Amino acid sequence: SSGSGSSSHFTIESVSILAGSTWQINREIEVRFSTDVDFATVNLNTIQIGQVSGAPAAGEFRIGTNSGGGLDPTRVVFAPRCPTLSDYSDAGLLPGGIAYRLNIVGGSGFTVRSANGASLALGQTVNFTTPDSPQASTLFVDTVTGPPAPVIRTSTATLDACYLELGG
To answer: How buried is 115 (Cβ within 10 angstroms: 0-12 exposed, 13-18 middle, 19+ buried)?
Structure first.
């Protein structure tokens, strides 16, 4: 170690959303940090996602993955709640051109910390909006080509499968 303290720097490397962009209501937001994150410090107080008017976005945080599909503890992903109502009023990010703000809190207080305990010194804020359209193709990002594929349960140990009810 050089004594310069560079090994303890904990910074934001990238944010998947660009300032001023229009973001689909089911699209995940990814923040990549310079070192592994202490996931116990990740919540809507340290990574704030909500309407500019103050209402928080609904969704969940998870550890991101690398290009090989393995877990990457330097990446934090926010997955907005997918709507179940036909008017999308229960979505994590509401449609209608709503102004949202992503604020990653920095400083020595209550903030995201690295796995070795370093505080995020410098935060970042990004403003964005949701699509203002009734079209599902505009409101949602679909990362898979074609219609949904059923997951067939071939073993009693497989619980993550489709459910189909036949008959009356």
So the answer is: middle
